[in-house]
Amino acid sequence: MYLVVLAAVLSLVVSGLVRRHAIRRAILDYPNERSSHTDPTPRGGGVGVLAGVAAALVVGTGPDLQDWRLLVALGGVALTGLVGWLDDRYTLGIRFRLAVHVVAASSLLPLALIPDPLPRWLGPAAALWWVLWAVSAINVVNFMDGIDGLIGSQGMIFGAHLALMGSANGVSGVLGLAIIGATAGFLMWNWAPARIFMGDVGSGSLGLLVVLGGLLLMREGRVDLVAAFLPLYPMFLDATVTLVRRVRRRERVGVAHRTHFYQLLANGPWGHARVSLLYAVAAAAGVAATHANGPTVGLVVVCAYFLMVPAAAWSIGYRSLVKPRAR
């Protein structure tokens, strides 16, 4: 528990300091027609999240940090955070950011492939799969960081997943505790109404951290591929359906928008706090599903979860909120 407290306090303090710096230097998100907020808001609070995670990992892992494969992966997280901070400050080009994301994602390959590829049935395709998955996670978490408290609360739930599923002496459990504390400290500033946003420095690096956490669970022999990342399903389903819908409408997918289901809810009848709580409950249900005992029962529960999430979205009002574009 002391790791959670350490990460939370450091994240809270550093996020507050970054907020003061961002206000002084006018590092602000200004509202526009695609925004879900109405006031200029400081960004870059993800620096506090990274500081909290880093401190907890150093204190909690000890000799495990001597594993060169883990150090390389953490270097990829640091690279993602650095480029995110520069993007928050200067707005970097999409191609440059994507190239850096591929490099950062590749930093997971030693853990994913040495000594054996995970999962083994992917064989030689494992390297390509992990890079694509990590790049997707970096960008999906960034896309979904659009309303107060959403990504911070999702980070807490996934951190709890790592802590519960990981080994008591494994790095995955320590990383889970670190993420719980760091995101909790940040949420003190980011819960609706937000006083600072995570920014690309936090959302991108958190996306890579969750992939690293799931990979560590698999490497430690705790879970399979599906169970490792199951709590991310509601968030990634929203992002995937939105992307497919925009491609079908021949929209420019690289342009900012407000058509994610969570945005339509938050800007409509629900508001930011209720939507963030809704997605947190959905992710927590994914954590619970990973604890279903027995191969048959576990399969049934996971399949039911995959069906229940879109069914819940439909019942809440997906069809009425996501209206066809006028011709």
Task: From the structure above, extract its key features.
327 residues, mainly alpha, two-stranded antiparallel sheet, 2 strands
How would you explain this protein's 3D organization?
Helix content is 70%, strand content 1%. It contains 15 helices and two strands. The chain is globular, with a radius of gyration of 19 Å. The protein has 327 residues and is an all-alpha fold. It has one domain. The protein has helices at 2-25, 46-61, 68-90, 94-106, 109-113, 126-144, 150-165, 171-190, 199-219, 225-229, 233-248, 261-266, 272-289, 295-316, 318-321; strands spanning 28-29, 41-42. The protein has a two-stranded antiparallel sheet. α2 (46-61) runs antiparallel to α8, α4 (94-106) crosses α6 (126-144) and α13 (272-289) packs antiparallel against α14.
The percent of residues in helical segments reads 55-70%
Tell me the number of helical segments per DSSP (H or I, 4 or more residues long). 15
Describe the global form: globular
Q: Largest beta sheet: what is the strand line-up?
A: 1-2
Q: Give unreliable regions as ranges.
A: none
Report, as a whole number of angstroms, the end-to-end distance: 56 Å
Q: Main beta sheet, described?
A: 2 strands, antiparallel
Pattern of helices and strands: HEEHHHHHHHHHHHHHH
- Look at the structure and give the mean pLDDT: 91
Rg, alpha carbons: 19 Å
Structural class: mainly alpha
Strand runs, count: 2
Total individual domains: 1
Strand content: under 5%
